[in-house]
């Protein structure tokens, strides 16, 4: 399910090094589902849309901000978002969520051209495969 996939992404974005390789591989496959136009690569715009969808799903009362309670109901991945609270008021506004570093994307985009190409994905996949 796509929304769960998006949640998994945010977990990976804040993941500790202790995270299992298998979970990373799974998140990678889910990341590829963000390829909305099906051209084999995930642009930053496509990835950001995925992140916005996650935010919308967590914002249960649709006030454009994630309260502590809303994050708590979203599980571990949503709680990780608390790092995005740049003004420290306890809620995460949409702007704060979108302004937070997209670490998974940055990590995958090896040549910093704002697109995670098929080749870049394959390179990471090869690393995860233990090769
Ligand atoms: Ca694409
Ligand atoms: Ca809310
Ligand atoms: Ca790239």
Walk me through what this model shows.
It is a single chain. The chain has 131 residues and is mostly helical. The protein has one domain (2-128). Helix content is 56%, strand content 6%. It is built from eight helices and four strands; from the N terminus they run H-H-E-H-E-H-H-E-H-H-E-H. The chain has a two-stranded antiparallel sheet with strand order 1-4. It has a two-stranded antiparallel sheet with strand order 2-3. The chain is elongated. It binds calcium ion (3 copies). Residues 59, 61, 63, 65-67, 70 line the site of one calcium ion (CA).
Q: Mind sketching the topology for me?
A:
Blueprint: H1 2-13, H2 21-32, E1 42-43, H3 44-58, E2 65-66, H4 68-73, H5 75-80, E3 92-93, H6 94-99, H7 103-108, E4 115-116, H8 118-128
Antiparallel strand pairs: 1-4, 2-3
Bound molecules: calcium ion (CA) (3 copies).
One calcium ion binds at residues 109-111, 113, 115-117, 120.
